[in-house]
Design brief:
InterPro entries: ADH_Fe/GldA, Glycerol_DH. This protein is an alpha/beta fold. 54% of the residues lie in helices and 12% in strands. The chain is globular.
């Protein structure tokens, strides 16, 4: 049997509270002129610190631009047409998932060196080789996969610790999902070396969150950058990014997604999700249902307790989805591409049964509290 040829590009990263000091040594070999693109709040939080570090190097910042509103192909094209983008040797992407995904889609497609500066720990966009693309109306369009991630991620824990804590809170939900979705999607298959690595690495998307998550979230709310915070930031931003790269093959998310994400993407049909809730918050709720569908009662209990402890949702009410909207969504979820590679066909009946069990678990909790 002929062995396949394939290439894997893993993320490079630096982490710490003074990590922008590494900008010169890391970036100078890629050119001289820098364009900084990011979200408004992200640039307010990080630009001065980035500029102070760049001023100590041979690099020169020639522009600072807002990325836009959503990660759409139209936004990417608008940035591509800017003359300052054409002149820049490299781009620094600053912000959360949508800003970094926009900058990645712009630069990696053009083979222009790009570096990420995450300012919140809500997802792994700083380290992974995919951009989540949206339609102009804010609904999910599709994942856009690349052959490589950014050149280097600069993870400043001081800036992340000062960001609103709900981003890390949501990031916890998105991160433990990686372990459960990877292990379920790959079940009973003979896996390639890199996919096996991805599944093995995904365990580190769950364990640190169960161990450090509650204290990290409490510390983050106080603006502290403790050991616990750093462990959770690494799990959210780095480990999930590495697992994601190993779990993606031929630009298809075979093992990289699952039922929790299918639930999220189906629910983006309702504007309240994009307007008032965070990706990982809803995914964390979806994991509870995915574990019940899969019969993993023990793991369900661990995640249920973690969600309760840090306030991640355990009910439809907490994500402002009505019973009728859920009933409608149950017709769409089994058809989503995220569950196309599941080891069994997800059915409406499975979802109904899982929701019933979840409601009973919540009721049991409430009766104990009364």
């Amino acid at each position: 049997m002929k062995l396949e040829n394939y290439e894997v590009h893993l993320p490079n990263y630096s982490i710490g509270d003074a990590i922008y000091d590494k900008i010169g040594p890391v970036c100078e070999s890629y050119g001289k002129t820098v364009l900084v693109i990011g979200g408004k709040r992200a640039l307010d939080a990080a630009f001065d610190k980035i500029k102070a570090a760049v001023d100590q190097t041979n690099l020169e910042i020639i522009g600072k631009e807002l990325y836009g509103k959503d990660c759409t192909y139209q936004t990417v094209e608008k940035l591509r047409r800017m003359s300052v983008y054409q002149k820049a040797d490299m781009v620094f992407g600053v912000g959360g998932g949508k800003a970094l995904d926009t900058v990645k889609c712009l630069c990696i497609t053009d083979d222009k060196p790009v570096f990420s500066f995450p300012t919140i720990a809500s997802n792994c966009s700083a380290c992974t080789s995919v951009s989540i693309m949206y339609n102009e109306d804010g609904t999910f369009l599709k994942p856009n996969f690349f052959v490589r991630p950014v050149m280097h991620a600069f993870i400043d824990t001081e800036i992340i610790a000062k960001a609103p804590s709900q981003y890390m809170w949501a990031g916890i939900g998105d991160t433990y999902a990686k372990y459960y979705e990877a292990t379920i999607s790959s079940r009973d298959e003979r896996l390639e070396h890199f996919t096996s690595l991805g599944v093995a690495v995904s365990l580190m998307c769950r364990n640190p969150l169960l161990e450090y998550g509650p204290k990290a979230f409490a510390d983050h709310k106080k603006g502290l950058c403790t050991y616990d915070v750093e462990q959770v930031v690494l799990a959210i931003v780095v480990t999930t990014g590495i697992a994601s790269i190993f779990l993606t093959k031929d630009f298809t998310p075979d093992y990289n997604s699952g039922l929790a994400h299918a639930i999220f993407y189906a629910l983006t049909k309702y504007p309240v999700i994009e307007q008032r809730h965070l990706h990982g918050e809803v995914v964390g709720f979806g994991v509870l249902l995915a574990l019940l569908v899969d019969g993993q009662e023990e793991e369900f209990e661990k995640i249920y307790q973690l969600n309760r402890e840090i306030g991640l949702p355990v009910s439809l009410k907490e994500i402002e989805i009505t019973e009728d909207e859920w009933k409608e969504s149950m017709g769409h979820i089994p058809k989503m591409s995220d569950v196309a590679h599941y080891p069994y066909k997800v059915t409406r009946e499975m979802l109904e049964d899982a929701m019933q069990k979840l409601k009973e678990r919540v009721r049991k909790d409430q009766s104990h509290e009364e």
